[in-house]
């Protein structure tokens, strides 16, 4: 009998489009150029009442400001009247999304507030989080950040807020359908030059933080061939499908937890729900003979510390491998983080679920 060669499946998330169409397209992660900026807020109308902007609200006299806040709230309520989309109903590659249509539906203030998300968030994430961005709590969060100096990706970065705006959503460069593992952190490192949008990671040239040193120590215990690098840049893991997500995505310099309670927790809870529905959706079937299902079939979640364990409590433990232990901080690593075996357990589960070779090369940094 003639042999049948199974052709590899190419997903849209693997393609790079430098000229994204304004038409409705299926965007599982066509990487829209990061240089494509969201259009500026529409020009004020010369007839009738002018659409009020965030800058008006910030610098106008107090009485006028109260009137404008009421108008902005009405606009937000109109836009968010639709319920959030039900996750997991459609296959990931079949969810349509038009960035230009999304922006056009926003009010002038919303366009200013959400320009960063439209510009830098990975499109496989944006299409399933777009309705979350217009929820009242998220717009309130963005007003808080705007007052802190966090604006567009190409605006001057605030010197006392980390990471730089362009890096806040760096975790979303890992395509949703290819997520294998989530490592959940707390909030970004508060030291200058440390935070760059990936949990536990620091840019090249920055000294390795103590928690990450302990992660490397545990990794070497599980994989003796691992040689801890001279850097703490974990992009090599992110490129293999490891989602390095903090619970809170920004922090004030030198003040840990300074942006807790502003709304990031609700947003990253929604990110975890998205992962629950679609994480691993574009990973191949174990036998390699069938295309990926387009729906999430389970991932590994590493929740280190009590706060992380609380965040993942709502995930389906029958679908995912949820690994919990103490935090790798020097204050707690000796009380359950060391010798937790999480890296080997993760790979064993991934290879059982997705086939040989489906694990992460943790030594590849």
Automatic annotation (TrEMBL):
Keyword Hydrolase: yes
Residue ranges of every copy of the Uracil-DNA glycosylase-like domain listed in the record: 172-350
Active site: 187 (proton acceptor)
Keywords: DNA damage, DNA repair, Hydrolase, Mitochondrion, Nucleus
GO cellular component term, pick one: mitochondrion
E.C. designation(s): 3.2.2.27
Catalytic reaction list: Hydrolyzes single-stranded DNA or mismatched double-stranded DNA and polynucleotides, releasing free uracil
InterPro entries in alphabetical order: UDG_fam1, Ura-DNA_Glyclase_AS, Uracil-DNA_glycosylase-like, Uracil-DNA_glycosylase-like_sf
NCBIfam families on file: PRK05254.1-1 (NF003588), PRK05254.1-5 (NF003592), ung (TIGR00628)
Similarity field: Belongs to the uracil-DNA glycosylase (UDG) superfamily. UNG family.
Protein name: Uracil-DNA glycosylase
Classification lineage: Eukaryota, Fungi, Dikarya, Basidiomycota, Agaricomycotina
């Amino acid at each position: 009998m003639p042999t049948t060669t199974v052709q590899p499946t190419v997903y849209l998330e693997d393609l790079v489009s430098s000229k994204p169409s304004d038409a409705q397209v299926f965007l599982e992660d066509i990487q829209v150029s990061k240089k494509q900026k969201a259009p500026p807020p529409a020009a004020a109308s010369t007839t009738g009442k002018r659409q009020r902007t965030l800058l008006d609200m910030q610098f106008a006299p107090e009485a006028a400001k109260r009137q404008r806040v009421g108008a902005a709230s009405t606009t937000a309520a109109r836009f968010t009247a639709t319920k959030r989309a039900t996750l997991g109903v459609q296959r990931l590659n079949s969810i349509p999304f038009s960035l230009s249509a999304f922006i056009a539906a926003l009010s002038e203030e919303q366009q200013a507030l959400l320009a960063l998300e439209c510009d830098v968030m990975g499109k496989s994430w944006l299409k399933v989080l777009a309705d979350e961005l217009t929820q009242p709590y998220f717009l309130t969060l963005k007003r808080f950040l705007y007052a802190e100096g966090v604006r567009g990706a190409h605006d001057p970065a605030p010197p006392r807020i980390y990471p730089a705006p362009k890096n806040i959503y760096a975790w979303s460069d890992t395509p949703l359908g290819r997520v294998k593992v989530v490592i959940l952190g707390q909030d970004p490192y508060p030291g200058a030059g440390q935070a760059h949008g990936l949990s536990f990671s620091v840019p090249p040239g920055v000294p390795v933080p103590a928690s990450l040193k302990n992660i490397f120590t545990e990794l070497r215990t599980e994989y003796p061939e691992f040689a801890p690098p001279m850097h703490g840049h974990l992009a090599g893991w992110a490129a293999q499908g490891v989602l390095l997500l903090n619970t809170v995505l920004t922090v004030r310099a030198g003040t840990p937890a300074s942006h807790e309670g502003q709304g990031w927790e609700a947003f990253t809870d929604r990110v975890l729900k998205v992962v629950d529905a679609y994480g691993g959706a574009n990973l191949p079937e174990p036998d390699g003979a069938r295309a990926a299902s387009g729906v999430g079939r389970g991932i590994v979640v590493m929740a280190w510390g009590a706060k992380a364990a609380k965040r993942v409590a709502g995930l389906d433990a029958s679908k995912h491998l949820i690994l919990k232990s103490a935090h790798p901080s020097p204050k707690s690593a000796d009380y359950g983080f060391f010798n937790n075996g999480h890296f080997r357990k993760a790979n064993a589960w991934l290879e059982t679920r997705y086939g040989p070779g489906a694990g992460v090369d943790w030594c590849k940094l």
